[in-house]
Amino acid sequence: MALPLSYNARSVAVRWRSSAATVLIIALVVAVCLVLQAMAQGIVSSTSATGDPGNVIVVRKGSTAESSSIVTRAQAQRVRFLPQIQRDARREPIASSEVVVLSNLRRIGGGEANVSLRGISPAGRSLRPQVRLVQGRWFTPGRREVVVSARLAPRFEGLGLGGQFKSGPHSLTVTGVFEARGTAFESEIWLDADEARSLFDRDQFSSVVLRVPDPSDQLALKAALESDKQLRLLALPEPEYYAKLTTSAGPIRFLGYFLAATLSVGAVFAAMNAMYAIIGRRTREVGTLRILGYPRRVIMLGFLVEGGLLALVGGTLGCAIAIPFNWVTTSTISFDTFSEIVFEFQITPWLIAQALAFSFAIGVAGSFLPALRVARLPVITAVKAV
Questions:
Q1: Distance, CA of 195 to CA of 145 (rounded, Å)
Q2: What are the CA-CA distances from residue 244 to residues 52, 194, 236, 266 (Å)?
Q3: Tally of CB atoms within 10 A around 13
Q4: What residue segments make up the domains of the chain, in order of their start?
Q5: Given this model, what pLDDT does residue 333 score?
Q6: Which of 22, 84, 145, 240 could potentially form a cystine with 221 if both were Cys, beta carbons 3.0 to 4.6 Å apart?
């Protein structure tokens, strides 16, 4: 016998207040969990999307990030002239020896945070085609000039175009603002590498970025560096290196799953209480369905479908509540570099699908025991219920 779904649908409409309360509870749970997962997804996307597949980054073995890596000038010079590196029109290797330092800057509105300053060599810009100047001009080496990410500029004092800020005892001038297509470079300030070493008293570099477009050459370069025990350097494709810098997303994602698990328990009990109340008032109607010939399993399945679809409506509403957070820009502290990382919330279709499946599961789980209880009632007892 077919499910009495028309009966379930009419019952939801008649008892709309209790149905609406169940929908709202599940919507709020789904919205909170979805926003947290979108936050973690934004951090992952900002790092995993960074880097060119044709670039290789060389850092010291054992370092967790460029800020903790040391590459001596002798090592950098030796690495630059390895045979696998692509040459430009002048037969010069396309390579950038870079310095990454942290500078403590004051936020607009109060507070302070560490910001990454990246010193790049002349080839550094050509190695990062995703970085595009949108205001002003590029820095001139030797004049204490920098260019700033468009996302950082409105967050810290003195980072606007033409502004000045202090990094230690030094005053730096902002000559340009750049965009980097949502990559990790949008959390950085750029200046000349040699000037950065001079200003911050660094005798070494942090990394060397090399143009090695051929995958077989990348493997050969990696093998050559690993076999040289004196260099103690590690070569990684640039996207792979940045994909590993997602430690910051871990705690947020864990918090999202933890809250999802915790809130789902509460939501299941809330849905269960609501369904107990809803189904309890429909005991005589269930008895009538039994008299009409509907078996217990069909009645129970109808209530499970009702609870699941009701929760799915709540999940859809929760997604709608969370959607305005998409593309909202915020920041947090990177546990890899201990500096400010700017990113956008990203609510992906996969996250929405997970949220809807999660809400449907809550509805089915919350409806199971009430549906089982009423389906097991003897027909006479059900019909005589008040």
A1: 9
A2: 15, 28, 11, 35
A3: 9
A4: 5-48+247-384, 55-212
A5: 66
A6: 84
